[in-house]
Design goal:
The structure is a homodimer. Chain A has about 325 residues and is an alpha/beta fold. Chain A has 3 domains: about 60 residues, no CATH class; about 210 residues, P-loop containing nucleotide triphosphate hydrolases (Rossmann fold, 3-Layer(aba) Sandwich), CATH 3.40.50.300; about 50 residues, no CATH class. Helix content of chain A is about 50%, strand content about 15%.
């Protein structure tokens, strides 16, 4: 075992055994849940081993379809995720689930609730479920989530669902990470203008009207159809379908999976898959590069160049642009 | 007039007259609303004149108290902002209001609603009101909002209120920008665990229980008091007060202003003001530096080094760490 591939770190008070990266990666590729979990923990802990892990995983990535699930609180996002997993499993697919909570930079841990509600699948070794808190880094989602995706991808997941807790910016970020974005709506969740304002009508590849047994479901569908019809679309562009579901009873999820398959084929056919994945890789490379620069600037270690520049700006002795120039001069030298 | 201080730009189809930065800054400092508005537009447009503007403003900044207002939808944030402005004006203070919508990277414009609801103050030249959409940049709030704050600060505002539309991450970002963060709650808005999860209980300097005439207001106050009592606090640390208001009728806002004043004194007394502002300047300098780097990496202009690295990562031929190393090598050379 080489020194770079082993560590005996202490995280959260627990003493951990030494790790061999090639061994872990081999076991994760064979679908061993503990190895997968351990690799994702290395991602969350920002372990120095990650360079080696990602290099080892790279040739085995690119197979999974990454599906983002977004929607306002109350549309039944958790129930839908659960029902979608059930449907995908019934079709014999291996499924990964990442529940991301970007609104909680303070909590380093997972959301108990996510684990509890997914207990239908807790004993199924064709399903990996992981809750992640994205911490307060500049990178946010851009940093940890794509790396966790790589782990699940290399571990042989056919489909990886990313669900975000919370609304707003994070929804848009999720769409940036996914191959296919599913936007959930439900009757009685506020008017169409609200939905438009949240931006979700511009990011959906598949729209799901959940709670379709309730009053108003047809109206939501009609409104959606109208808005989709209004959008400018190039020839050959994807036209987002609308599927009605009652996730609580597992109804309509087969149609959702059909649309996911159809979208995947469309993505692969026209080169859009490569474009989306290249864009995702760009963001990921940038986030890593910027984090490395921040470390150089002294973001982590005590008094630094950046601190001194910031003090001058705070005192009105300098302005942020001049300070940024001086900071960049330190990188280039 | 020097060539660097003039421009005749066309933005959004409108032809604009040439600008003299020294002249604009002088007029803004004298409190001329049109000059202030124009400077904030330069911020929103990411004008190349900003370097000159910020250098000219720097010596005149640092006087205003920046107050962040956060709270879940439905607590009466807009009404409270409006009532707080009324109270501050009654005390003869000059007030700036920035309404930021970070959830809307798609919309470049202001929110009509914000302007409408603030119409009480539309004709008062002691109040500057501005809605800003933070676009989809890496910097997000970190980029445009602090620069708009500098403009309002130099224009002689005593207090600048920043209100964010939306919840989650943006709330935490607002707290990072503010000297004083006011967290609004109201009865009937969900249980305490929800509030804790959103992280808002860890960022408040002043808590306001709005709609205090409704059932359950005392319970919210008791819950809050309990949580505040539980928090670890060093000696001499600020203990967040809880104020009850009925913003709709303007009740209790005088107490909120008292607490803002008290917090300001505390901040100035112990050096915390300088610490907070230095941290804010750090983030701002970093956001500018990172944006400059992204431009070098070819974020804006066509095919680039970064695009090629991203394509290799997307194809599984490289991994993001190796690619980030190669990217950084181009900066240092």
């Amino acid at each position: 075992m080489s020194p770079t591939s082993t560590t005996g770190s202490t995280t959260g008070g627990r003493r951990r055994a030494a790790v061999s990266v090639p061994d872990l990666v081999e076991r994760a590729r064979a679908g061993e849940p503990r190895a997968v979990a351990r690799l994702i923990s290395l991602v969350e802990d920002e372990s120095p081993l990650l360079r080696e892990v990602m290099a080892a995983l790279a040739p085995h990535t690119g197979r999974a379809q990454v599906v983002g699930l977004t929607g306002a609180p109350g549309v039944g996002k958790s129930t839908s995720t659960n029902a979608l997993v059930t449907e995908l499993r019934a079709q014999g697919k291996r499924v990964g689930v990442l529940a991301v909570d970007p609104s909680s930079p303070f909590s380093g841990g997972a959301l108990l609730g996510d684990r509890v509600r997914m207990q239908d699948h807790a004993l199924d070794d064709g399903v990996f479920i992981r809750s992640m808190a994205s911490r307060g880094h500049l990178g946010g989602l851009a940093w940890t989530t794509p790396q966790a995706l790589r782990v699940l991808d290399a571990a042989g997941c056919d489909v990886i669902l990313i669900e975000t807790v919370g609304v707003g910016q994070s929804e848009v970020e999720i769409a940036g990470l996914a191959d296919t974005t599913v936007v959930l709506l439900a009757p009685g969740m506020g008017d169409g203008i609200q939905a438009a304002k949240a931006g979700i009508l511009e990011i959906g590849d598949v729209y799901v009207v959940n709670k379709a047994d309730r009053d108003g479901a047809d109206q939501v569908r009609r409104d959606l159809r109208g808005m989709i019809a209004l959008a400018d679309r190039a020839e050959g562009a994807w036209r987002p379908p609308i599927v009605k579901t009652v996730a609580q009873r597992g109804e309509g999820l087969d149609r959702v999976v059909e649309e996911l398959d159809r979208h995947r084929e469309w993505l692969a056919g026209g080169g859009e898959l490569t474009r989306r994945r290249t864009r995702r890789a760009r963001d990921e490379i940038e986030a890593i590069a910027v984090t490395a620069l921040r470390a150089r600037w002294g973001d982590v270690h005590g008094r630094s160049e950046l601190d001194e520049l910031a003090a001058a700006v705070a005192a009105g002795e300098s302005d942020p642009y001049t300070a940024a120039d001086e900071l960049l001069a330190t990188v280039s030298s």
